[in-house]
Design goal:
The chain is of the alpha+beta class. The protein has a single domain, classed as Creatinase/methionine aminopeptidase superfamily (Creatine Amidinohydrolase). 32% of the residues lie in helices and 18% in strands. The protein contains 6 helices and 12 strands. The strands form 5 sheets. It has a 3-stranded antiparallel beta sheet with strand order 1-2-5, with helices on one face. β3 (123-124) and β4 (127-128) form a beta hairpin.
Length: 265
């Protein structure tokens, strides 16, 4: 085993004199795909802290604030005013901007009955969290997955996405191919007539990086095993109208149980 901190070209030349080197493809990706019990505990804490930040941000949401100001306030809660790091730049998107899966903030201002999409995560002991909520701006704002939109089209799309996520999560089992989860969620959205508006894969692994193995997509036949942590995040994005995404991190513990981490408060 070689410490990369003490590795240089001259060391490589010396090593070649006494041994041969063999490249192992994707070694670190495969090793990180399965987390230890200690890593799982750290990730659970990261997710819990991230979820609490969503709840605290809820109290900072005000009408007539633009996405820039909302994003600033969100990051303030996520980082505890700079005391911890973000997993990635948060997504804060109102109405038509939420139709872009990786939206950038704009000067659009928040109004009553708007749809607001929030995607964010924090780091705890270097491990990432990731969560998305799409919420209705009503008199009582909630970060739960039970949302009531005044607009019937928004409610319809939201309910389809929520059903797709719930069915995929209920289907997770040790020993199944991970692409089956994408198929389950995608079929629900396709059967509802919105298949072409689900424009990304169902999820991705989370750990030291915000995106890592295993990827939850149609092609990945990786077998689900204890120690895996990944997101389930179906979405429907109607161009120039709005988008809905609901994302939670799930963990397969060493008792082969599925835990929905992002629901922790």
């Amino acid at each position: 085993i070689i410490d990369p901190l003490n590795w240089d070209y001259s060391s490589f030349l010396e090593l070649q004199k006494v041994t041969s080197l063999k490249q192992i493809k994707n070694y670190s990706h495969k090793k990180r795909e399965i987390k230890s019990e200690n890593e799982l505990e750290i990730i659970k804490k990261a997710v819990k802290k991230g979820a609490k930040a969503f709840e605290k941000f809820k109290e900072s949401i005000e009408l007539n604030l633009d996405e820039f100001e909302l994003s600033y306030r969100f990051k303030e809660k996520l980082t505890k005013r700079g005391k911890r790091d973000l997993s990635f730049e948060p997504i804060v998107a109102i109405n038509e901007n939420s139709a872009k899966p990786h939206a950038f903030v704009t000067s659009k201002k928040l109004k009553k009955d708007d749809l607001l999409l929030l995607d964010a995560g924090i780091k705890y002991k270097r491990y990432c969290s990731d969560r998305t909520r799409t919420i209705a701006i009503n008199d009582e704002i909630s970060m739960s997955k039970i949302q009531t939109f005044k607009d019937k089209q928004k409610q319809k799309i939201y309910d389809i996405v929520l059903k797709a996520q719930e069915e995929a999560i209920k289907s997770i089992k040790v020993g199944m191919k991970i692409n089956e989860l994408d198929k389950i969620a995608r079929k629900i959205i396709e059967d509802a007539g919105y298949g072409k508006y689900f424009v990304h894969s169902l999820g991705h692994g989370v750990g030291l990086d915000i995106h890592e193995w295993p990827y939850v997509n149609r092609k990945n036949e990786t077998i689900i095993k204890p120690g895996m942590v990944f997101t389930i995040e179906p979405g429907i994005y109607l161009p120039n109208e709005f988008g809905v995404r609901i994302e939670d991190m799930v963990m397969i513990n060493y008792d082969e149980e599925v835990e929905v981490l992002s629901e922790y408060i």
